[in-house]
Amino acid sequence: MSTMPITAALMVGVRPSSGPLIPVIGDSTAHLAYELYVTNFSTKPVRINSLTIRGAGGAPFESAVAGDELKSWFIRAGTSRQSPRDPVLPAGASGVIFVFLNFAARETPARLSSAIVVEADGDSKSTQTIPLDDLVVAKTGAAVIDSPLAGDHWQAANGPSNTSLHRRAVIVFNGQPRVPERYAIDWVKLGDDGNTFTGDEHKNSSYHCYDVPVTAAADGQIVSASDGMPENVPHSDKMAVEMRADNLAGNNIVEDIGGGNYVGYAHLRPGTITVKRGDKVNGGQVLGKLGNTGNSTEPHLHLQICNAPSFLMCDGVPMEFKQMSVTKYKIDKRGEMPIRLVAGETQAVSDQEPMEDELVTFPASNVAK
Q1: Is residue 196 within 8 Å of residue 234, measured between CB atoms?
Q2: Range from 121-130, 250-259, 305-314 carrying the lowest mean pLDDT
Q3: Rounded CA gap, 100 and 17, in Å?
Q4: Which one of 30, 54, 293, 309 is most buried, by most CB atoms within 10 A?
Q5: Following CA atoms 232, 160, 115, 63 in sequence, which dihedral angle do they give, to the nearest 10 degrees?
Q6: pTM score, two decimals?
Q7: Long-range contacts of 165-170, Cβ-Cβ distance < 8 Å, separation of 24 or more
């Protein structure tokens, strides 16, 4: 217990996100995403100077996050979830530190020991170190699945990284903050020019991924299937329907694949869903077709796996695809306009999740017969 005078103590509360800490394999190494929710219970503004994380048991690991990197990991509650923020909490304010750890290999520590260093903002003499409870890292838990798509030029837009739109989407229902899209991916298909469409960008049929069959990623049972929502006009100023919490996923399917994991397939084309609640399905079975419904600006398949049968009231779980090939690439541009997709080396990998914007090919066997 601290011997510091109570009048000098900075009362900062820190708690980790709910749910198990499940690493994901991507780029042939392990990664781990979780959140630290920080509240300033002091009567003065508090600055977070640094976060240190050390591994205990298993693979060695040590990281110290400060300066600009810490700014990029931090948001204050009620502010933009993307822009780097000075890690200062006014009296009574809360914030989130988005932790994204990159390990040297596939192995991870068994536990993580952490501490944050804080000070009264502008008073370096008030610096204090706050140790945090150890966190247990799960040995397994990622959902190993087949891809619900087939073929080449699939880009993992908004895939796992510490800055993607999915990563920073904190959802609060029933008083509990969650990050359901922690490892989610928006699948789009690139053409030879590096664009997702050819022709009129305001027509859904112009997009390379539009109307592509979406198949079950694993054997399972359908928990819910929602159809009938009209499609959006791509990149227009208005959605087809007013967005609410219950329709953000558009026409969608949630599948129970066992092990406490649920696959969410979102933004499907109206009238194409082939299953209903309670149906048992086999991996590779056609569930519907890719479209542009709900909270979507252009045709894509939003794919996520969660620990509960919901798109929002759950915590995101990593997914690892049994088979895929990853292609190194660049997109040549004329100004801001993509003009050519330049593909490089392609490598076959197994039991991995693509990281943000990686370009992958899935087995042709996933094509619906």
Answers
A1: no
A2: 121-130
A3: 13
A4: 293
A5: -150
A6: 0.94
A7: 165/82, 166/304, 166/316, 167/33, 167/98, 167/100, 168/75, 168/81, 168/82, 168/98, 169/81, 170/35, 170/81, 170/96
* Nearest-5° Cα angle at 340, 337 to 346: 130
Mean pLDDT of 75-92: 85
- In whole angstroms, how far apart are CA 166 and each of 114, 183, 185, 259? 25, 7, 8, 23
Q: What is the Cα–Cα distance from 124 to 358, expressed in whole angstroms? A: 43
Mean pLDDT of the 40-47 span: 94
- At 320, is the secondary structure helix, strand, or coil? strand
Per-residue pLDDT tens over the stretch 315-352:
999 999 999 999 999 999 999 999 999 999 999 999 99
In this predicted structure, what is the pLDDT of residue 3? 59
How far is CA 343 from each of CA 177, 329, 332, rounded to the nearest angstrom?
40, 4, 11
pLDDT confidence tier of residue 364, bands split at 50, 70 and 90: confident
From the list 247, 187, 178, the residue with the least C-alpha distance to 217 is: 187
Q: 């994901």: which residue's tokens?
A: 24
Residues in the chain: 369
User: Which amino acid makes up residue 166?
Assistant: H
